[in-house]
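Loading example: each entry is read as two labelled lines plus one structure line.
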Amino acid sequence: MKVGFIGLGVMGRPMAKRLLDAGNELFISRVKSPSEFLVDAGATACANPREVAEAADIVIVMVPRTEDVEQVLFGADGAAEGLRPGSLLIDMSSISPVATREFAERIRGGGTSYVDAPVSGGDVGALAGTLSIMAGGEAEDFERARPLFDVLGANINLVGDVGAGQTTKVANQIIVAGTIQAVAEALILAEAAGADPAKVRAAISGGFASSKVLEVHGQRMIDEAFEPGFRIRLHHKDLEIAMSAAEALSVELPATRQMEQLMASAMHSGLGDLDHSALFAQLRGSQAADSGAP
Amino acid sequence: MKVGFIGLGVMGRPMAKRLLDAGNELFISRVKSPSEFLVDAGATACANPREVAEAADIVIVMVPRTEDVEQVLFGADGAAEGLRPGSLLIDMSSISPVATREFAERIRGGGTSYVDAPVSGGDVGALAGTLSIMAGGEAEDFERARPLFDVLGANINLVGDVGAGQTTKVANQIIVAGTIQAVAEALILAEAAGADPAKVRAAISGGFASSKVLEVHGQRMIDEAFEPGFRIRLHHKDLEIAMSAAEALSVELPATRQMEQLMASAMHSGLGDLDHSALFAQLRGSQAADSGAP
């Protein structure tokens, strides 16, 4: 299959390599030194997203932010200029579900199909081809993308219409953040009350407090082992998307708003490149500051 | 064993009955009509907590609030007057861990051992003898209480010194509340963004967002099935304990504070006797109010 790949960052590079290794003809844009290995492995370097879209039947976008997607699609020499009826655009970036529906409308206006398919699983999952893929779009477009998704991911779901993938990703990130903060506050209180947080965690595991976060991130908090994992900086970006979507939809999300602010504070404290379980350290550190302790 | 039981409410009655059925000699106080069946079944009615403590070797307290424990222990004709060296006081109420340590110090001053052992599992667990029991105290006192705990519960843990049981219960309730709120906000955003909350929930189950709450309470939110379960009113009480402990220990718990306020708002909206998954309805209802929708 002729596949275009726009956005060769930490996630995009291993994903593009897997697609190439699976036998697809790969077209990439703006090749910088970290992605030259893809050309060496057989990918075709194009001058810009427009040329990628002209050369490929399916174009995947994997860039950091909503404005980056807008730029590579609709900026000068953007992919939209090269897409045509019958093309399929798959945006695997994690961006605003509201903006996604606008982008899809514009792209579909030109006769090109659009699927949003953000992922979770990080660069480890991208390398291993075990990403979770949360997709939104028409069922026939999803089925057309499916062979590529199968190369990239392990847990692949079509959730609904365009935007539903991004919405699902945002929902996931809200729940993970909220659970991390709740576990952190519970363990901080336990510690302050003189209990052993490890024993508290063990005693409540298995009941209604049990979660993947209590299991994994709770242990990291107890060990104070905060190497990423998933960086606070990236999770903060996802909660910014959640809040901008909430504002666009006139929805109040008080806990999500607070978590976004907590993560911003953690970045301000220099914790942005630590695992999101380090919100425990941010919350505990603020206690010391509040109490005037050294 | 000569067991005293003070506090024969919705939880205490089935617990006392199980202890009686297990062959213990049971002494109860202030018998009102709902607990007369215990006397019919062989329990001895005493005039007050002091007489219960005089008659029994182990005295269990199971009352609603911190001030109730203080009253039955240290009020007029309180249990403290009847306890003696060698007695064991087990407080199975869910109360402040900070107050618990004060009560234990006073009781131990008279030579009586003290174990705090709050439970979770509700009246269903009390009837079935499947409560989770989170205990704090000396190991030898815990072992002495163990045969009674085995009659009452299934998941029984000694977490640490006196107060650790209450601390564990509070930690559990913080995590459950925080996870419920995060799941509720995620599903509310999903719905507002036009996605099917049931499909979103299914897509993220199994990943880092997975929890017992997403499984059980998430489904209740989707079904809008809010019969208790565990009532908002009771969970609010537990978060009040969390906040009063946090204040006593000079710990800031921003998410817990917000959850306590959300539950208070839900009670104000008449949802206090619904399951705590109805926080979804409270949060969603406040959207309609904010947006001026009917």
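The CA atoms of residues 136 and 162 of chain B lie 4 Å apart.
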